[in-house]
Each structure stands twice: as structure tokens, then as C-alpha cells.
Design brief:
719 residues; alpha+beta; Helix Hairpins; D-amino Acid Aminotransferase, Chain A, domain 1; 6 domains; binds 2-(butylsulfanyl)adenosine
């Protein structure tokens, strides 16, 4: 649809994103929510869908900003914070396996200085002298997929993916087909329980060959070896995995009933003796200089290693020191990943397309002259938003030296093992004469409505929420997506097709499709690409989802800022759809209403989310659409908290750095046992569980006479 010309009353002026030091508390709170949602979505794309959409560098940037804001406002840290999580929930196709020892993530270093800081931090923590550098093992960081392999009595019993770090997917049957992974461990004194961990990967050559075969057979081709390894491992049929050339490097361990060695280096050699392949390039380094020389050496060999690596990992060698160093939330203090700069290529930007998302956000996408970057042909790159094109970063600071991107520019594109690359540089010398700065559209290209940029927002949004076809289609795609209604055989393609045909315009239309089809003279079976069986299957799949869990429904509604996590919090709090709707209507009466206060007080639900939910229900057309949907489906009540445990009904606050479990885990455990987890201490608090260096919350608890427990005492209490 051509864009309708509408005049904008006043140009929306957005204050450039502020430096962390300049943020006020409410701004910080709102931004943490936004960052958590964004990081969440990227985690899901990376871990569950094997289809990331931003570069690792951009992702790391988001996390760094979130960490920096949390460091400035520690009390804004919540269990939903990305710093308290490791990756996304497992995808749900395989049985779940709880890791006996969590599978943690690594902190990142991006420069020589960061590496020196790491060694210095270790030294300070261990109170070593300035000249005393602890020996460090350096090894390539394999760009694959981590696995935990449990051996009991020397026999492989379970193989699990990392998942969210605590619970992964059971891929034992598939893993048994991988040659590099022994079915039983060699050696006489193998401990009773051994969990060996490492990385599944695919060599570059095998990846290219597999893609060639897949393309020839008209099957799925993968974007890179990592996705290919992940896709090959998570097959329903182990014989498919067996046909894929998967390899494995062992480099770590989880639960061990006994430790055969006392250093990292010796442990990895011991693991090799039990029958595993370990990386021959692992090296013991004695100083920062040696570490950095190793890094440069590996970097220079990167292209000829034959497999993808995205950096180098450093680990303190002595295991007793590792033990003393322990962990900070999601990563060990005794190890760090030194990342490589991403791969780059130069090309020309031929144009900018604007895509309209579910919430009306207008996202510019660069159309590039196709170029090969790191073995992948790149034809487009994300441009994020208006400021990004102008050369302004999300923190308000100049990016690319403050240079804007213009159609016709020669640009440097960067990708790092992901799908949508970034433009990191404009080659100004090659800028054609008479180019003009790009003017971001002030109207929606899909419906012609005004595209408005609100204060404090980087994105411009189409204001035609209810008339914009692009938004409607994106909303429907979200509605049927995997973590929402998850209707088999009803994906993006079908949404677009049925929408264009006028068959499905609203959520409820999906559930009335069969009935309407029965009465229609133009039946679905007569459409191209459909037959009796596929139509029958489609209706069966739709009918199967007429009973839906409350949290899925809430997520499916596509309310701004309500991702899966918040949907679960809301579902758990309100229990039933009737109660939820009633409460949201009451909350719409104003911020002073009891219902709004109750919503805002839910742990993990901040002001931004609360506002968004209330706003959604304040729109009569949304309520009408929901009523129509509810006439077609049955919403199952959320699981109610248990009442038969010592902490049922109690309010608990976790504070300080926890070592036995992460905040997320602690919170999930407490909630499973029927306790309510709060973010701040008040007279209503029953227990404060305090980890190391607990601060003001602990003081407050003492002041109010609230019971303070150590982590162990908490575990004793809950049994
Ligand atoms: S050590 C407690 N060593 O990188 C830390 N990880 O960003 C255990 N990875 O989840 C990890 N190569 O999947 C370690 N040589 C290596 C690695 C490696 C790749 C992955 C691993 C981990 C991720 C963290």
C-alpha cells in the first residue's frame, strides 16, 4: 500500500539516550525493563531458535549497558534481570534434565586492558602480591553448543544441552551417535560419577558440504556451523543426527564424585585419557604477556583451524584457587572469554527499507550489494532506528565517528556468526557527490498513519495500531508463535496468506475459520497448496489449542512490554482470566486504585509494564477482540502456589550475592513452595535470605526485626 501523505504537527524530538551516569532513577528503571525484554528476545532467538538477529558485539553492548545501570542502581536489580540469567529456557521438544551443577556462562573481555584487569581482579581477590600472577590455561573458545555428559560407573547415562543453565534438554539418544563422545570412560580409577562438559561443533568443511547436500535435496540450509551443529543435535530422530558430521571438544566438568587431578590443565589431560578429544591448542600461560601472545597467535590462525571460534578462554589453573574465587551471578570469577573482533567486508548500500513490527515500530533495514562476509552472503543489515542512521548510539554517544549512513554509501559490514549483520563504518572517501542525509519517514509505509516518536524513545511508531495491516499481520504471527498459541501448521506463511485472503483478520478469526469454511463456497481445500489432509490437520491443530494456559494467552495478546516472563508473573498472580480482566479494568481507574497498586507491586512487574497492560485494557477495541477470542477458547487457570510447605504464604527477600543458587533459581524455588518473593524489605517480610555483601536490605531487616537466614539455613528450612 502506498504511503499516504500526512503532515506531522510537530517533529518528535527525542533526547539522545543518556549516559548511564546521567540517568535518573525512574529512567534507569524503565530502561532496565526495556533492556531485559530486548535481551530476553535475543536470548530466545539465539538459544531456542538457533537464529540470532544481532551481532554478538551488539548483544554484548546491551548487556554491558544493563550491567552498568544495575551497578549504579543496585536496588533496581530484580530476579528478571539478564544478569541473573544464563541463556533462555530450553525449547521444550525434548525431556528436561536438571543439571547437578549449573552450567554457567563466561564474562567477556574485549581488549588487552580487559584481560589485564581480569588477572588483576584475580590477584586482588586472592590477595596475591603484585608480581605473583596465577598460572592460567588458555584455549580456543569454540563457537558451538555446550553439552553436559553424565557418566555413572563409567557409562554414559545422560547428555543434556545447557538450556537456561539449570535445566537443559535431554539429547542422550542423539549424543550416542557422535563418535567423539565415548559411551563409556576408559581407565581403571574412573570416579563413580563424572560429568564431562564441552562443545559440540561442526568443522567448516563439513558444514559447507552438509549445506550443499541440504540445498540439493531442497532441505533447510544453515546460516553458519554453529546453527548447523545445534540443528543437527536437536533432531527428533537420532538417525538424522547420526548422519550429521558432529564433533566434540571436552574442556570442563560438572559433578565429580572424586577429583582425579588438582589443576585445570591436568584435569583436561585426564579427560583426554578417558577417551575424549580435547583441544590440542590448550596452553598453560604464566603472565599477561604470555596470555596476550597466545591470543594473537590463535587469532592469526583463526581461518585455518578448520572450525569456528569466537575468541579464547582463560581459566585460572589451580582448582583450589578456582574454588576460592567462586562465582559472580552467572559467571565464574576464575575464567573469562576474550572475544575476537567480528568479521568485516566492504560493500555499497543501495537503499533503506522500512519494516513495520507488531507494536508498530518502524525498523529501517539496509539493502546491500550482496557481499560475502566470513563465508556467508550478506544482502541486508539492520539499521535499528533513526538515530543509528544519523550516527547516534543508544547511549546518545556518537557511533561510527558520528557519520550518518546515506543511500549510495560504501559501507563496512560486520557479522559475527549471526544472521543480521551491522554497518560499522561508512567509507567517506567513497561517498558519491550529491547524496542527501536520509530522511526517516514520518508516516507508516504500510498504512499511511502518522509515525510518531515519543519522548525518551529511539523508535518511531505507526500510530494506526488498529488499522495498520502490517501491525495486524505481525500481531497475528506473534499470536500463533511457539511460546504463544503454538498452532502446528499455522505459521508466518499461513498468517500472511489468510490475512491477504481476508480469512483471518483477528485472533478470534483463527478459531472460527473451520466453521466459516464449512459455509463458504470458496473452500480452503480448493486453495493452492492445500489438500483434504492438510486442511483437516490444520483444523485439528487449531482445535487442539482451544484449551490454553493463562500465561500463554496473556503473552499471545501482544501487549507491549509483556514477554513470556511477565506473562507468567501476571498469570501466577491473577490465577484466572476472569480475575485478570476484572483487575485490569479496575486498575484502569487510576494509579491510586487498589487494583493498580496491586499490579504495580507484583515482584518483577515495573511501572512501564503495569502502564502498558492497563493501557491495553483501556482500549475498548482490544477488550472487544479479547471477548470474541474468549468466546472460542477455554483458558486454563494458572498453577496455584502450594500451601503445604513451611514457607507457604510467607514473604521472602533474597539479597546479597548468592552462591548456592542464582536469584532466578532461588525465586523459582521459593515460589514453587508457595512463598511470595519481594524486592524490598518491609514489615510484611517474613524472611530475608542474605548472601555475601548484603547491604541496605540486610540492615533494614535487622532494624525491623525480620528473620535473617543464610542460604544454608534457607535450604534447611525448605527441606
Ligand atoms: S569454559 C564455567 N571453555 O562458551 C565456564 N567454555 O560464553 C565453563 N565455550 O557456555 C565454560 N569454548 O558453551 C569454556 N574452551 C571453552 C569454551 C567454552 C566454548 C562456550 C561454552 C560456554 C560459553 C560461555
Amino acid at each position: 500500500m502506498p504511503a499516504r501523505k500526512t503532515s506531522v504537527r510537530k517533529p518528535a524530538v527525542k533526547p539522545a539516550a543518556l549516559a548511564v551516569e546521567q540517568l535518573t532513577r525512574p529512567q534507569a528503571k524503565a530502561e532496565l525493563v526495556r533492556l531485559a525484554l530486548e535481551i530476553d528476545a535475543h536470548d530466545k532467538r539465539y538459544y531456542q531458535d538457533d537464529a540470532p538477529t544481532i551481532s554478538d558485539a551488539a548483544y554484548d553492548g546491551l548487556r554491558r549497558r544493563s550491567d552498568a545501570i544495575e551497578a549504579r542502581f543496585p536496588d533496581l536489580l530484580t530476579a528478571a534481570s539478564p544478569s541473573q540469567r544464563i541463556g533462555a529456557q530450553p525449547a521444550g521438544r525434548f525431556a528436561k534434565v536438571r543439571h547437578a551443577v549449573p552450567m554457567l556462562s563466561l564474562g567477556n573481555a574485549f581488549s588487552d586492558e580487559d584481560v589485564a584487569d581480569f588477572v588483576e581482579r584475580v590477584r586482588r581477590f586472592l590477595k596475591l602480591d603484585a608480581e605473583e600472577a596465577p598460572a592460567v590455561v588458555a584455549e580456543p573458545k569454540i563457537d558451538g553448543l555446550s553439552l553436559s555428559l553424565r557418566y555413572e560407573g563409567g557409562e554414559l547415562v545422560t547428555a543434556a544441552t545447557r538450556g537456561d543453565g539449570f535445566e537443559g534438554e535431554d539429547v542422550t539418544a542423539n549424543v550416542r551417535t557422535i563418535d567423539d563422545i565415548p559411551g563409556h570412560l576408559k581407565g581403571r580409577d574412573v570416579p563413580r560419577v563424572c560429568e564431562i562438559r564441552g562443545e559440540v561443533y561442526m568443522t567448516t568443511r563439513d558444514f559447507l558440504e552438509l549445506n550443499r547436500k541440504q540445498a540439493e535435496a531442497g532441505e533447510q540450509v544453515f546460516a553458519n556451523p554453529r546453527n548447523s551443529a545445534a540443528g543437527s543435535l536437536r533432531q527428533k530422530d537420532p538417525s538424522v543426527t547420526a548422519s550429521r558430521p558432529l564433533k566434540f571438544f571436552a574442556y570442563a566438568w560438572g559433578e565429580m564424585s572424586e577429583m582425579p587431578e588438582t589443576t585445570q590443565f591436568k584435569m583436561v589431560h585426564w579427560i583426554a585419557r578417558t577417551g575424549f578429544v580435547t583441544n590440542p591448542r590448550m596452553k598453560l600461560c604464566a603472565s599477561v604477556e604470555e596470555i596476550l601472545a597466545y591470543y594473537r597467535d590463535i587469532e592469526s590462525r583463526r581461518a585455518s583451524l578448520g572450525y569456528d571460534i569466537d575468541g579464547v578462554v582463560y581459566k585460572v589453573d589451580r582448582l583450589d584457587l578456582q574454588q576460592r574465587l567462586g562465582f559472580v551471578s552467572r559467571s565464574p570469577r576464575w575464567a573469562i572469554a576474550h572475544k575476537f573482533a567480528a568479521e568485516r567486508a566492504t560493500t555499497v548500500m543501495n537503499g533503506i527499507d522500512i519494516q513495520v513490527g507488531r507494536t508498530g515500530a518502524l525498523t529501517p533495514v539496509a539493502r546491500l550489494e550482496p557481499v560475502t562476509v566470513g563465508g556467508v552472503v550478506v544482502a541486508n543489515a539492520t539499521l535499528h532506528n533513526e538515530d543509528y542512521i544519523k550516527g547516534i548510539g543508544s547511549d546518545g554517544e556518537p557511533i561510527r565517528g558520528g557519520v550518518d549512513i546515506r543511500v549510495g554509501d560504501t559501507v563496512v559490514v560486520q557479522r559475527a556468526g549471526d544472521v543480521i549483520p551491522q554497518i560499522v563504518e561508512v567509507v567517506l572517501d567513497k561517498r558519491p557527490k550529491h547524496t542527501k542525509a536520509y530522511v526517516f519517514p514520518a508516516t507508516c509505509p504500510a498504512c499511511g498513519s502518522r509515525a510518531v516518536r515519543e519522548e525518551g524513545e529511539a523508535v518511531r511508531r505507526c500510530a494506526g495500531a488498529l488499522i495498520c495491516p502490517a501491525q495486524a499481520v505481525e500481531r497475528l504471527k506473534h499470536f500463533v508463535s511457539r511460546n504463544a498459541f503454538d498452532i502446528e501448521g499455522f505459521g508466518d506463511k499461513q498468517v500472511q496468506e489468510f490475512f491477504d485472503a481476508g480469512l483471518v483478520k483477528s485472533d478470534a478469526d483463527i478459531f472460527t475459520l473451520e466453521q466459516r469454511d464449512a459455509r463458504s463456497s470458496k473452500k480452503l481445500v480448493d486453495r493452492e497448496g492445500y489438500g483434504t489432509v492438510s486442511v483437516r490437520n490444520l483444523f485439528a491443530a487449531i482445535n487442539e489449542r482451544r484449551r490454553i494456559e493463562l500465561h500463554r494467552l496473556i503473552f499471545a495478546l501482544g501487549i507491549r512490554h509483556v514477554g513470556e516472563g511477565n506473562a507468567k508473573l501476571l498469570a501466577r498472580h491473577y490465577g484466572t482470566i476472569e480475575h485478570f480482566i476484572e483487575a485490569m479494568r479496575a486498575a484502569g481507574k487510576g494509579h491510586d486504585s487498589e487494583a493498580f497498586q496491586d499490579l504495580d507491586a507484583i515482584e518483577g512487574i515495573g511501572d512501564v509494564v503495569a502502564e502498558a497492560v492497563v493501557e491495553f485494557f483501556a482500549e475498548p477495541r482490544n477488550r472487544k477482540a479479547l471477548d470474541e477470542l474468549l468466546a472460542e477458547i477455554e483458558v486454563l487457570p494458572a498453577q496455584q502456589a502450594r500451601r503445604d510447605t513451611p514457607v507457604a504464604g510467607k514473604t521472602v527477600v533474597f539479597t546479597g550475592s548468592l552462591t548456592r543458587f542464582t536469584r532466578d533459581e532461588a525465586k523459582a524455588m521459593a515460589e514453587r513452595l508457595g512463598a511470595k518473593v519481594a524486592g524490598s524489605v518491609s514489615k510484611k517480610t517474613d524472611y530475608v535470605v542474605a548472601g555475601d555483601s548484603a547491604g541496605s536490605k540486610l540492615d533494614k531487616a535487622r532494624e525491623l526485626g525480620v528473620s535473617v537466614l543464610t542460604e544454608d539455613e534457607w535450604l534447611d528450612l525448605v527441606g
